[in-house]
Amino acid sequence: MSSSKHVVFDIVGTLVAYDHVFDAIDTRLGDRLRAEGIKPRLLGYTWMEAAEREYTNLSLAQSYVPFGEVFRALFYRMLWMAGIAEPRTWASAEDLEYIMAEYQLLKFRPDAAECVQKLRDAGFTVWAFTAADINRVGGYFKNAGVELPAENLLSCDDVGVGKPDLEAYRPLLEKLKSENDGKTPWFAAAHMWDVSAARKAGFKGAYCSVWEKESLSELFGEMDVMDDTLPGMADKIIAHQASS
Predict the structure, then answer these.
(1) What is the 3-state secondary structure (H, E, C) of 122-158?
(2) Superkingdom of the source (predicted)?
């Protein structure tokens, strides 16, 4: 018998950390970047953030492009914006290929598997909904030794609508509600923009500040549960569900 309790996770940035790709930027370009007064981690963060913006803009314009393609395409623009006068001579195609290859190898946060297991032990079915490529994200689970049925892993690529468009969340929300007597499922993320949009679409919202540190609740509002750690967030989801 299937569970009537469901939690949908964002993956990259939430269960999976960005640290590996930041380290790859440092390994490949770190000394050259620091010579230009550019911190490798800050370049990585701004590259990721700019890619999320352009990915969203393309989706809103009904010109959807998978996130990985957007991320790759922005590399030389980000170097230009960071102050590199001739990005395509300063960094080679091989530099970019190295970073993109390492991007395929992002790792689970140390306590992410514990978070997932806590919820499963409490009777929740765990789902993953990502803006990333399904094969890449499936690899993150496999490499971490965390089982996730293929049918429980969904991507914005499936429908060509990117988060945080509310229409991106609704198909899975409606599926889970219709199969569970209208019970509201959870959406959990370490991106406040993501979980707040999912909550507006109709999910219960669970936020973990492990990535962003500052929740900016004055902008996004309060979520149903919030915690500084993934296992702590799981505990609060379980407690909230039990009391409702």
Answers:
(1) CCEEEEEEECCCHHHHHHHHHHHCCCCCHHHEEEHHH
(2) Eukaryota
Task: Give yes or no for a contact between 51 and 168, defined as CB atoms under 8 angstroms apart.
Answer: no
Structure tokens, 219: 């902008």
- Count CB neighbours of 69 within 10 A: 13
Residue 71, CB half-sphere, CA atoms under 13 Å: how many?
A: 21
Domains of the chain: residue spans and CATH? 3-17+107-243 (3.40.50.1000), 18-104 (1.10.150)
pLDDT at 17 over 60: yes
- Of 73, 41, 42, 43, the C-alpha closest to 55 is 73
* Selection from 21, 27, 139 nearest residue 72 by Cα: 21
**pLDDT averaged over every residue in the chain:** 96
Q: Which amino acid is at 167?
A: E
Rounded distance, CA 120 to CA 146, Å?
Answer: 12
186-244 pLDDT tens trace: 999 999 999 999 999 999 999 999 999 999 999 999 999 999 999 999 999 999 999 98
Q: Tell the burial category of 119 from Cβ atoms under 10 Å away from its Cβ (0-12, 13-18, 19+).
A: buried
Taking only Cα atoms into account, the Rg of the chain, rounded to an integer number of angstroms, comes to 18
- What residues contact residue 236 under an 8 Å CB cut-off, 6+ apart? 206, 225, 226, 227
What single-letter DSSP state applies at residue 187?
A: E
Q: What is the DSSP letter of 17?
A: -
| β partners of residue 126 | 7
